[in-house]
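Bug report (template v2)

What were you trying to do?
Predict the complex of my protein with zinc ion.

What happened?
Run completed; filing so the output is reviewed.

Input:
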Amino acid sequence: MAAQASAPSTSATSAVKVISKTWARDSHDLFDFEAHQLHTQTFSVPKSTVCMRNGTEVQMVGERDAPPAGGDPLLRLVQRDGTFWVDKVQPSSNSKKLWLVVRDLVSSSHRLQEGDVIKLGRFKFRVRQLVASTYGGMQPELRLDDSGVICCAVEPTPGGEGPQVDKLLCRICLLEGPGEDDPLIAPCQCKGSIEYVHLGCLRHWIRGRLNLSDRPLGSYFYRPLTCELCKSVYPTYIHTNSGQERSPLVEVPFTQPPFIVLENMVRDSQQHTSRGLHVISLAEKELKLGRGHESDVRIADVSISRTHATIRFSKGHFLLQDSSSKFGTLVAMKKPRVLEPGVNISIQMGRTVLTLCAQHDPNQSNSASSLNQLPVGGSAQDERALRLSLLTRGQSEGGQSGGQTAQSEELPEE
Ligand SMILES: [Zn+2]
Ligand SMILES: [Zn+2]
């Protein structure tokens, strides 16, 4: 952490204002951004501190104090050289994952990078690839398995050893030997008379199962296919011409850049959701993620809003935005983050959201309070200021609002 500890040029901070909001329900580590009944607390944190949660009660514990029994560590605020950092609680094994709340970020959007993990409701995606430019002819990298197994076309060996290629039988068309530009391959664990198949014959079979051609701008969902007999996963790429060329086993259309490749991160309890890659072109429109039929990435789950989030391409960047979703759009926080004075960030850990704002040190600066320093102008900023005022108002109401309205759709218990 020290290596990147270049403090922001702004003045030193004396304390961090923390507003914690905890959802009464404990369900799938979700936080309901539309809930009326949230347990809200406000803190002013002047020194390095660990935030803990016990039930719905958030507590601030000094770094050297003994943590209260039964509490869950949420995050750590570290003060160093007049600057505050947010970090996860060490050891990280039993601490909650820290998720940045996208709607509360500056300009209400997050600039995506390859490797980012995003979370919508209960669903996680990994950003596998971002291709902005039409130059270079970049196409989606479809690899999902990291087995490293390379499937090569069967070719006659120079010494004459190995299988007699012309006598090998294709298990689909039952013809002997490779066809013209149609090599025989051994794509799975099957052995004996069903070991080999023509690449063309296998592609014809795949085409019948998942037809990816003719999709607008070359957007599609790719999932790995398995052999129906031995159940092993077919390779993604086939190497031909003595390994000189490589082509995807599944015939995929040309994807128009700019495009994004998102991987479905499927947990064991989500077997109904197939593991795979969403390849989406942003050449002519933004990408919509949600439960509605018009979504480009459609997730039929009650934790997903009809229109949940969007990704658009603007000035060379892929921007993720939340569409006022019920359970929020989040980005995994990968490393410790500096709190810049006057800039709020919100971090979700399970059913708690902490909004953090570093306060200017009154001894070093006579500037106005951080809330008044919010840049006002763009509509995004207006919305942010409005949300902040709502946050402060919710605080004074302190959970006075009536009972939570009945949920028409209950989240299934795991
Ligand atoms: Zn064949
Ligand atoms: Zn097989």
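What did the reviewer find?
The chain has two helices and 26 strands. Residues 188-190, 227, 229-230, 232 surround zinc ion (ligand 2) (CB under 6 Å).
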